[in-house]
Write a structure and sequence with these properties.
Ribosomal Protein S8, Chain: A, domain 1, about 550 residues, 8 strands, three-stranded antiparallel beta sheet, single chain
Amino acid sequence: MSGLLYAILALVAVAAGFAVGYLLRRARDQEVLAQAEAEGRAIRERAAAEARAATDRGAEEQRQRLAEARAQLETEFGRAREQFEADAQRRQAAQAQELERARADVEEGRSTLRDAREELRRDREKVEQIEERLTRRGEQQDARALRLDENEERLDQRVRELDAETERLQERLAEADRRLYDVAQLSREQAVAQVLEQLDRELEREKAVRVRAAIEQADADAKRRSQDILAQAIQRSASEVSAAISVSVVPIPSDAMKGRIIGREGRNIRAFEAITGVDVIIDDTPEAVLLSSFNPMRREVAKLALAELVGDGRIHPARIEEVVQKAQQEMQTYIRERGDEGALEADVVGIKPGMIQLLGRMHFRTSYGQNILKHSVQVAHLSGLIAVELGLDVAMARRAGLLHDIGKSIDREIEGTHTEIGAQLGRRFGEPREVIDAIYNHHDLERAETLYPVLVNAADAISAARPGARRETLETYLKRLEGLESIATSFPGVEKSYAIQAGREIRIIVEPDKVDDASAVLLARDIAQRIERDMEYPGQVQVTVVRESRAVEYAR
């Protein structure tokens, strides 16, 4: 019993345990379910809140995109409208320009039409004037023909009258001869001899007059022909004239370079002046240094050297000596190039290198401010042109003209005149006899053996007489004019004297009662010799003596 009881109690206990466990599990399950439901509600609420928030954000974003799209559309529409308006304005401007051009073309066409009508009117007036002149000319020709016919008739009548008068004169002459024979008691032969003797005397006088007239005409023709030849040579020769000065300008990059040229305590400038023999002038002239020397070759060497020193920037005594030596070597090349250029410009070939070097040295020599090399080239051209007119050797004339002053290239280094030195150089370098003659005698034509000194002398005078060819100061110029006039007025019988044509001519007025025509010729020669002896002048001076006598009377 007790075992069954225990079993029942155990079963009851087990059942109770199951019941309690079930209830506990159910309570726990309900609690979990409640939590799950609470969590679900929370999740649903969050989801709903998120859904509402997402919906709000989407709507806001959609509104923003819509606003942006509307703003972009409005911007593009505004841009398109501005583009359209600009295109419309451009089209309107283009149409306006086309319209203006069309109007201008129309106006130009109208102007052209008016000009054409005006020109046509003028041409019509000219034609009418020409027709009127032709009509008047025809009437004048008709009147002239009538007058010619009348004159011809009168001339025929006059011829007939003259024939009759001639017959009467012949008869009277025969009668006079008979009376002369009777009065003079001469035979016919004796009278004829006297008449022939008188005719011989008259013919001798006529012959002398004709010979003098022929000589004067020949002199005038020769003078005119020579003037024509010289004028043609001058007109056909074009040559520039330059005057060298004694100062050269060397540009420098800045005024600070002047201090480097001077050097510490002036050692650079002293070394430069001692080596080159040129004075360096550094003053307030901006960005420039002056080189002064009477010798143009030294000045050119110094200019080349200083330009290289300034460009290099290294300036000290040793460098200066090196650069000056280099510049001197370059100068020799430069001289040879100038000589070649002068010979080429004068169209003279076959000159030896030594003579070319001397010819190039003439580039740095001046006479009265005129560059000797350019002067020689010009004389060569003029000599050739004159030789063409005279039928002489043109090449020989050019060669003589180019080398006529070659002695001036070294006349400062050798004793003697430039003509003597030039002739010696010509013989040394094997120049032709005609060229040596022109070099030696182009200033003394009396010793000339050929015609080439005459050609060179004329060409030399033309070149020196060109306006601006030779430079002289105003003081020297005035003194020369005063000297010419004072020499002329110092001779007896001279009333007035005038130096004209820049001193190229002195015109002298003499007193006619003291100086006759023959004495006037001697006076002109004496004055010319006095000018040659007492004055120095470029080219030549023409002396013109004017003698004029006047007879004045009054009718009352």
